[in-house]
Amino acid sequence: MDNILLAAVLGLLEGLTEFVPVSSTGHLLLLGHFLGFSSPGNAFAVVIQLGAVLALFSVYAAKLTRIGLAARHDLAARRTFFSLLLAFLPAVFIGLALHKFIKEVLFETPVLIAVMLILGGFILLVVDRLAPEHPQHTDAMKLPLGKSLAIGFCQCLAMVPGVSRSGATIVGALLMGVEKRAAAEFSFLLSIPTMGAAVAYDIFKNRDVLDFSAISDIAVGFIVAFLTAVFVVKWVLSYVGRYGYAVFGWWRIIVGLAALIGLSLGY
């Protein structure tokens, strides 16, 4: 496959999967494995993830700006930022402690990724069905601080590739009585500091081996990921509010099973 076309495909996959509970990392790693695609220092993966982060920030820039300006005199606005900070902190400490193991061991184990996709799919199907018809919390900006912190610990499960950062946070939120749309929105907001910090740390840790020689490929992947992610973020909130998460659970199971079959055949 032509490098530019492959870059566009991977950028599209990143944008489509980053903010839905199917594990963008798992999809990218599996596709890279089967297509034999690699990037020194993972420069390509790092940059297209940055495209997805910027897409999300562009969608929520106005809302975050309003909250930031109101925080000077509004206790509720300050509480929203504190809630997100609490949810973000577990990933900081656990991610720093396990970064090398995650990147060098877990990211290089395709069978683990496929199994996590399947297992996470079944969990998502069950939790989506059990979600209460009348949830306790319907506003992502007003979650209790204790529940925000608990969702932050759930997010750490996504350090295992194939689990899904958005999937872990959404499932955790649903189990704590958060309405489906609000669970997705809190997951989106939490991903801004989490993914931003992860990308920055990856760039810092791999600064000596990052290879940006294929700049045209990277640029194509970045742009496609950005544009696709903008569309997905706007679409997901409307979709899950009406239909829930079952379709994502089935998708995970299908992709995971297909990957296991491919791996068993020696690909």
Number of helices: 10
Strand-pairing-aware structural class: mainly alpha
Number of domains: 1
Average pLDDT for all residues: 87
Number of strands: 0
Spans of at least 5 consecutive residues whose pLDDT stays below 50 are none
The radius of gyration is 18 Å
Question: What order do the SSEs take from the amino end to the carboxyl end, as H and E?
Answer: HHHHHHHHHH
Tell me the helix content: over 70%
Shape estimate: globular
Q: Assess the beta-strand content as a share of residues.
A: under 5%
Task: Write up what this structure looks like.
76% of the residues lie in helices and 0% in strands. It is globular. It has one domain (3-264). The protein is built from 10 helices and no strands. It has helices at 3-17, 24-35, 43-70, 75-104, 110-130, 145-155, 165-175, 180-205, 215-243, 246-264. With 267 residues, the chain is mainly alpha-helical. Helix 1 (3-17) runs parallel beside helix 3.
